[in-house]
Amino acid sequence: MAELSRLPQPIEEVWEWQYKGACRDKEPEMFFHPDGERGPRRRNRENAAKAVCASCPVIQACRDHALAVQEPYGIWGGLSEDDRLAILSRRGITLVPTAS
Length: 100
Description:
The protein has helices spanning 12-15, 39-54, 59-68, 81-90.
């Protein structure tokens, strides 16, 4: 779960982009891996999710959100968990551990 203190305030304009997401009519399982998923199955699911993101009109807002709140799971803005970790690491951002 994302660290809630980094989430924007509940103001409609801050979250409005989500209504325009290309993922809105897709199954969440396309963007979030099941426990134990690895190898080709995981890569194929991630690539399919990233393809949806590639045509999304709000990809940048989604990506910015995921990086700002350090989303720990799923494909957001065309980025996987590993993609986001690499970007944040390059920016010198230390990740806040998630609660278990």
